[in-house]
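Worked Example 4.2. Read the sequence first, then its structure tokens.
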Amino acid sequence: MAWANQLCTAGRGASLRAVAADVRPHSRIESVPRIAVLISGTGTLLQSLIDDPHRGYEIAVVAADRPASGLQRATAAGIPTLVASPADYPDRAAWSTALADLLAEFEPDWVVSAGFMRILEAVFLDRFPQRVVNSHPALLPAFPGAHAVADALAYGVKVTGCTVHLVDSGVDTGPIVAQRSVPVARDDDEDSLHERIKQVEWQLLPEVVNHLVAHGCTVNGRKVEL
């Protein structure tokens, strides 16, 4: 995807076919931006968005690639949920298309990957151009992928952290929106370090999402200006 000199806007997704009868979009309040949140696990990052005291957006839907326990957090907050399992589709392209179709029904202005453990392909990203962001538990470009915290410890870094970045079709390769550092303690193991990184992610992701839904961003090459 070409990123040079492009404006991140908060456009509306296209309305397509109706989703399952028990998962229907809420009526849109035109003045309130909407986000869709993608999860794969327990949903602690999702909870930070739900609990954000400065939230200037509506969480229109929470989607997962499996029956993730974090969906219960959405249900408790009265947010529609859906599951789109890749195993139910013939290939990744078909799954990506179906997931995009389902989310588009909820008209999200932005899509937020919050602990979502799947690569989003171009067929998905093209439906929400420059409007998909992800939180990653490392200071990219160092330590991309699913084992970022363990990889940082194994490398012996003294400082790591978290990154919120725009999503492209690579593995944590999109332009960086914001980063925050976390020092590595001498006695850290993966669990203790990851817990401290999560504490920072829970603050940074809502801050960035609030800014993006209100103001968007400008991307010049790999530089993102808020």
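Now turn to a second chain, presented in exactly the same format:
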Amino acid sequence: MSGAKRHADGLHRCPWPGEDPLYVAYHDTEWGVPEYDDRALFEKLILDGFQAGLSWITILRKRENFRKAFDNFDPVKIARYDSRKIAALMNDAGIVRNRAKIEGTVNSAKAYLKIMDEGPGFSKLLWSFVGGKPMVNARKTIASVPASTPESVAMSKELLKHGFKFVGPTIVYAFMQATGMVDDHLVSCHCHGTTGKAKRRSRNRAAKKPAGAKKKPAKNAKAR
């Protein structure tokens, strides 16, 4: 397949988002941005599991529905889902209604909680497979991007050992690409090598204010 494509805004991008505005925004601001937050990583891993057999844009369009249906991907709540909740999810047209994947999410939440209680933490465990920092690749075409790597195979085995579901090497590699553990933007793409720069923001989350930061008083606000 070809390399990066030039868009109307003059920027060259990986070809996979096409011209879809939602997909282009995801490519530019999320895909490949290093994510270190435990909960955000859990959410992304679960969504990548739901993607199996489907396209990512399908999941992306349903992401807010998934967040609502799965209690904003709170592992504590998901681990307690019973048969009634699973039945309700199977009737939710806003998500992918696959019983094996839904039940697998419950098992994965339990595995996550165990890692958080007994292990080094979810983020530290996952990032350990790439030495704690992004692996920047130099792919020239989509055809040169592998479906899996030794690192994704190793991570897959570790996750399966802990009880996670739908975490095969291919799913895990897609997860590693999306969360910035590897930079697989093509070398001719404007996002290649831009990890951490201001124009790339992480996971749709608002920037946190520094600890102890004081709010500016509103104009005309009365002193208390």
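Notes for the reader: Residues 202-224 have pLDDT under 50 and may be disordered. The two ends are 64 Å apart (CA to CA).
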